[in-house]
Amino acid sequence: MPVTSDPGIALSALHDHLGYWMRLVSNAVSHGFARSIEGQGVTVAEWVLLRMLFDQESAAPSHLAKQMGMTKGAISKLSDRLLDKHLIARAADTADRRAHRLALTAAGRALVPKLAALADENDSRFFKALGPEDQVRLGNLLRAMAEAHGLRNTPLS
Amino acid sequence: MPVTSDPGIALSALHDHLGYWMRLVSNAVSHGFARSIEGQGVTVAEWVLLRMLFDQESAAPSHLAKQMGMTKGAISKLSDRLLDKHLIARAADTADRRAHRLALTAAGRALVPKLAALADENDSRFFKALGPEDQVRLGNLLRAMAEAHGLRNTPLS
DNA sequence: TCGATAAGGTTTCCTAGTCAACTAAAATCG
DNA sequence: CGATTTTAGTTGACTAGGAAACCTTATCGA
């Protein structure tokens, strides 16, 4: 009669880790957001890039790669997709002939506020389950974690 | 002189959303864990499947798909990889000729405690940045979120 | 100033998922 | 009982990202 485990060894369960709960909640929020913006024809990564360009007038792909915590290869493909959708434009850098500048098109600029509203809505839909004070506490705890570990890049995966 | 945005419109920033901080931290924890177990030759998804089998003696792929929140196609490929690594074994279900049973091999069973130790280590390495009380608070907030939204499946993506 | 090195981008190959089509077997129900 | 529907699992097409090889252009240093 095979045993499933040696009863003498107590093994931590998956849900014994805070990382488990972080991933569970984070995933639900992100997937919810992905669903809420797919009607606008964009993905979460695309939203992040568009939102960053909204503040920057124009940016080099390599700069976006650092900001977004993605490889330059990924940014290259991501911007290809956004070019196909006519949400951004690509121009040669006048000073550096290797470099490019990415900028929002009018359509891209018009889309960002809509997506931002959906982001707001998604966030409050999920986190209203906590009271307002607990939302603040959660934010403080997460920012403390980010601070302690020097987390800077916008995460996507 | 082009403007980057209409100053009359205040747009929420990426980091104004709790979802942003959740993803930032969750991602760092998960990637840290992925790195810490890659020396053992397994991925996070593989770890989760192995850990679940550790408690169950044997399980049907379809059952694991529900438990892990993945499609049956993904489980099919995931178990192929674990079979190749000789960490699990696949047997025909005696009662249902469509179904299979997956179970840990001796090697798989021996590996799980090592991975569990790495999971413990990774979790405490990250969350020790918070004090013990704050760790408890964070866990309570996350579980409250999971409860409120009926989140059940172990998330992976 | 010119040769080596670094930096910007693209492309190719690889991994790991989803979705949907497909096969086989079981379950349902008229 | 037999036809239909459901369920289990695999497979193939597709997506999105990482790693590394690869051009091109800048930069740096002897």
Summarize the structure.
2 copies of one chain form a homodimer. Chain A is mainly α and 157 residues long. Helices cover 60% and strands 6% of the residues of chain A.
How does this model look, in words?
2 copies of one chain form a homodimer. Chain A has 157 residues and is mainly alpha-helical. The first copy, chain A, has one domain (17-148): Winged helix-like DNA-binding domain superfamily/Winged helix DNA-binding domain (Arc Repressor Mutant, subunit A). The first copy, chain A, has helices at 18-38, 44-56, 61-68, 72-84, 106-127, 132-148, and strands at 88-92, 100-104. In chain A, β1 and β2 (100-104) form a beta hairpin. The longest helix of chain A is centred in the last third of the chain and has 22 residues, at 106-127. Chain A is globular. The termini of chain A are far apart. In chain A, 34% of the residues are buried. Chains A and B meet through α1, α2, α5 and α6 of A and α1, α2, α5 and α6 of B. Chain A binds a DNA duplex (30 and 30 nucleotides) through residues 43, 45, 60-62, 70-78, 80-81, 93, 96-100, 156-157.
Task: Record the SSE blueprint.
2 copies of one chain form a homodimer.
Chain A: H1 18-38, H2 44-56, H3 61-68, H4 72-84, E1 88-92, E2 100-104, H5 106-127, H6 132-148
The structure holds a DNA duplex (30 and 30 nucleotides).
Can you identify the CATH class of chain A? Mainly Alpha
CATH hierarchy: architecture of chain A: Orthogonal Bundle
The whole-angstrom Rg of chain A is 20 Å
Number of strands of chain A: 2
Q: Provide the structure class of chain A.
A: mainly alpha
Biggest β-sheet: strands ordered side by side in the sheet of chain A: 1-2
CATH topology of chain A: Arc Repressor Mutant, subunit A
Q: What's the number of structural domains of chain A?
A: 1
Number of helices of chain A: 6
Helix content of chain A: 55-70%
Overall mean pLDDT of chain A stands at: 93
Q: Tell me what portion of residues of chain A adopts beta-strand conformation.
A: 5-15%
From the structure provided, what is the oligomeric state, counting identical versus distinct chains? Answer: homodimer
Q: In sequence order, what are the helices and strands of chain A, one letter per element?
A: HHHHEEHH
Distance between the termini of chain A: 43 Å
Main sheet specs of chain A: 2 strands, antiparallel
Name given to the CATH homologous superfamily of chain A: Winged helix-like DNA-binding domain superfamily/Winged helix DNA-binding domain
Shape of chain A: globular
List low-pLDDT spans of chain A: none
Largest interface: A-B, 63 and 63 residues
